[in-house]
Structure formats: C-alpha cells, structure tokens
Amino acid sequence: MRSLLRRLLLDTRYTLVGFPTALIGFVLMVTGFCVGLGTAVIWLGVPLLVGTLMVARGFADAERGWLSDVLKRPPVRPRYKPAPPGAGWFRRLVNPLTSGQSWLDLLHGVVNLPFAILAFVLTVVFWVIPISGLAWPLYGLVTSRIPGNVELPELLGLGDGYLVNAIFYVSVGLAFAVLAPFVVRGAALMRAGLGRALLTGVAELHERIDDLAQGRAAAVSAEANALRKLERDIHDGPQQRLVSLAMELSRAQRQLAKDPEAARATIGSAITATRETLDELRALSRGIAPPILSDRGLAPALAALAGRCTVPVELDVRTVRRYQAAVENAIYYACAETLTNVAKHSRATSCTVQLDQVGGVLMLTIGDDGVGGAHVAKGHGLAGLTDRLRAVDGELTVRSPDGGPTLVVAEVPCG
Predict the structure, then answer these.
(1) Can you name the residues that pair with 366 across neighbouring β-strands?
(2) pTM of the full structure
(3) How many CB atoms lie within 10 A of CB 300?
(4) How high does pLDDT run on average in the chain?
C-alpha cells in the first residue's frame, strides 16, 4: 500500500507540474520558432531560432529528469552534436541548428501540450471526486439544508434525503479512489511515453549501440585471452609431454635390440605418459566446450564441475531447461573459473553453487567461507570473467571483503 501511494503521488506530481510547464514551454517555443523563422531572411531570426532551441533543450532536460521517476529508470541525456574544432563564432552560434536532437526537443515542446492537458484533467478529476465524495457526509450536513437544493441521486431517480445522498456520494468516492492509482498512472505513462520517444529514444539507441560495441570488443578480448591461455597451457603441458614421449619412444627403439627388458620398461613409461597427456588434453577441452554441456545441459555440467572441485561444493540447480549455447557456455565458464579460484586461493572449507532463472535473467551465485580478497582486477583469477559475460550482455558482481566470506554473482539475460 505504501508503494502504491508513493507511486500515485509521484505520478500526480508529474502530471500536475507538467501542465503549466508544458503550457509555458509551448508558448515560448511556438512564438520563438514563428518569429525566428519569419525573420530568418534578414538574419535576425537565426539567433532567435538558436535561442528557441536552447530554451527547448532546457525544458527537455527538465522533462528527462521527471521521466526517471515515472518510468523508474535512470535519466538518459542525449549527445548534442558539438561544434567542429576550430570553428568560428558564427559556426558555433548556429551549431544547435545542425543537431537533430535539438529539433526533437522543440517538437516535444509543441506536441506535448495536448497530452499534458489530458493527463492534468484526468489527474484532477480522479483526485477531486474521491476527496469530495468521501468528505460529503461532512459538508453535506450544510448543503442538504439549502432550500431548493436538488442533489444528483434525486436527479437520477435514486431518492432523496441525507442518508441516500451520503451512501451515493461515498460509494462514488470509493470507486474513484480505487481507480485513481491506475488512471493517474496511465495518464502519466501516456505523457511519459511521448517524452521517452522524442527526448531519450535516440540516446537510448546510442547507448545500446555502445553497449553492443563494448560487448563485441569484450568478446574479442575474452576469446583472444582464452586462446593465449590455451596456447600457453598446451605449450607448458601436453606439448612438453609429447616431446618427452617422442624421446622415450626413440630410446625404446634403440634399446629393443640391445636390452629388451629396458625397452619394455621405457615403453611402459611412455604408455603412462600418454595417458597423462590424454587426461590433460581432456581437462583443457573441458575449459573450451565440454561435451557434457552440449549434450546434457547446464545442470549435469555444473554437477561435474562441483564433483571435480577440491573444496566440498553444495550444488542447487533450480532450472533444468536448455538455453542458447552462448548463454550456457558463459555460465559454465563463470562457474569453472570461480571454482578454480576457490580451490587455488580461498582456503575455504565449503562452497555453494546456485543456478536459478529470475525473470529473463539466468543467475549463477557462488559463495565460499574462505579468506576473501577476490576481485576482478587484472592479474587475478576472476579477471577475464567480466569480459566473457559482457559479450552476452551479462554482468559479474563480486563481494569479497578481507576475511571473507566471498559471494560471486553472474547474471546473463536468457530471453
């Protein structure tokens, strides 16, 4: 109830304050535009048009601030086109005329007035009727005694008298009071929708483009880092083992004629090295795209990770559906890297892994009772996770104070 009342008050403030603001802005912008356009032929109208666009920008900035309260999202200010470096005074003066968003601000100031009037009227009606209806038993004691006074219930054929009038007006007031939060909210959203389309739509599109560009750059960086790590791991592990294996087999070949027993022992050692190399290659392949993940999904893949971790892991998977390969790979990689970090650095005695879908977001939560101090700075075990998750529009949150405990949360949109 408190949240509903707060929302009603915020929407009411938006619609009530918005009407006089929209009216003042409409007068200033229409007047400035018409006068400036009419006198542009003698160049006097150019600074008037520029001034009108700057006034429109001021009203637009105020509207964007109010939109954040109504739409429950942070305000987004568009990027106004700056003057070219080294431009002269006249080019800097007319620069607002070359910005498309400036003209959208002006358009909003003109077309916003009818929406502001409608929202204002609806808000006033759905505040006045509930208040006057619920308060009628108080002031009705006076109005019902006025000679010749005919109340609305009597005109509707419902009867007359103080009790009939009180029941009727209180009922109407209650009905409008119940509907008021929804009607006022709808009126506010109607006007806010126009503001968002004209004042922040282009800016939100630019932000989305920037996010996609950063995500692509993050994906490229993450893949490059993963390839470098894989190359280093192969060079330091399997490649060295294969070189040693080739040398062992060459030695066994030389020993076959002279010392068969020594050759047999060398071959046995080579077989053992071959198995160790295969195990290491399997471990490396699990870090890229484990077959269990593509064949059976996240739940079995996370269970396999938990089973291999040297720290006892309590696994809680609350969703068993399949997701896009990129989403599953990102979550699996986040879990694998985090559990590796827990095993190597945390000195924890227990760890919990929880996977759940909250709305359209797949959430992986990993906690341990270790010494803390984990973060995503370069050079630490979790450094590459941020880029890896950003590539799929995901986010990584790490809370790990010194002394612990540590909580790592990976969130990935899953549609």
Answers:
(1) 353, 408
(2) 0.60
(3) 15
(4) 83
